[in-house]
Amino acid sequence: MAKNLSTFAIAQMLHVDPGSVANWIDQDLLKAYRTPGGHRRVAVDDLVAFLHEHRMPIPRELSPGPVRVLVVDDEPGVTQLIHRAIETSHDDYEITEAHDGFRAGTVLATLRPNVVILDLRMPGMDGYEVCRLIKSQDSTCHADVIAVTAYASPENQQRILGCGARACLSKPLDMTELLDLVDECVREQGL
Questions:
Q1: What's the Rg (C-alpha) of the chain?
Q2: What is the sign of the dihedral through the CA atoms of 109, 91, 79 and 187?
Q3: For residue 148, which of 118, 126, 112 has the smallest C-alpha distance?
Q4: Whole-structure pTM value
Q5: Fold for the domain defined by 4-62
Q6: Residues 42, 13 contacting (CB under 8 angstroms)
Q7: 68-188: which CATH architecture?
Q8: pLDDT in tens, 1-46
């Protein structure tokens, strides 16, 4: 895959009119540059960022590889349970476990997960801080965060959603609900 794409190549990939792509560029919605001949070119990373921002599916040819899921909980039994459930339904996913917020922070930049399943209450760096960290970095802001907590309350749910989480589920977890939500996140990301 080329690192830079023409408006025509983007239009074909997204099944839209090339004029639509040109309009997105002219309206500064899609970052691009012009060649000396006046042709518009878009970096693949800028196109992916645009698609994420506008909640458009990412074409398979732009997908950076396998779906990556990070499971963060200070209880190893919980991370293992979630890991096995996801692995059983999607054996091609890369699943990584972290047992505290600090460890999650160190793996985030290198792993660049698509989905993060995140406990709210952990020693050290709690789930709120981890979620804010995820959403504040260019390399991870695309990730969907699914918060989980044994201390569900309207205040906790509102607070984590305000940090950028997609959803907040109560423990004990309904695995079907969690897996459906992971599938929804992956589908909307076009992976």
A1: 18
A2: positive
A3: 118
A4: 0.69
A5: Multidrug-efflux Transporter Regulator; Chain: A; Domain 2 (1.10.1660)
A6: no
A7: 3-Layer(aba) Sandwich (3.40)
A8: 468 899 999 999 999 999 999 999 999 999 999 999 999 999 988 9
